[in-house]
Specification:
single chain, 79 residues, alpha+beta, Metal Transport, Frataxin, Chain A, 3 helices, globular
Length: 79
């Protein structure tokens, strides 16, 4: 999970790892078609993710999650 937050390899992040990270930090998930929508009560932004056909996350979506974590000062806590 550390590589998600360090921007070392945005093209090689598995979608399920990104999804798992958001869920571990208390985000709720809804699914609509193949779009995964994440929200959290105390955060006004929502994150919409869609996996690539190879199972990886889209690099710009990894960056969105990283920016959200930095903005709200989330830190890895035994994840």
């Amino acid at each position: 999970m550390e590589k998600i937050l360090t921007a070392r390899s945005d093209r090689n992040i598995k979608f399920h790892d990104l999804r798992r990270l958001l869920l571990r930090y208390g985000f709720s998930k809804w699914t609509r078609n193949n779009h995964y929508i994440f929200s959290r009560e105390d955060i006004p932004e929502i994150i919409i993710l869609q996996p690539l056909s190879d199972g990886n996350a889209k690099p710009y979506q990894v960056k969105l999650v990283r920016n959200l974590f930095n903005k709200y000062k989330f830190y890895l806590r035994g994840v």
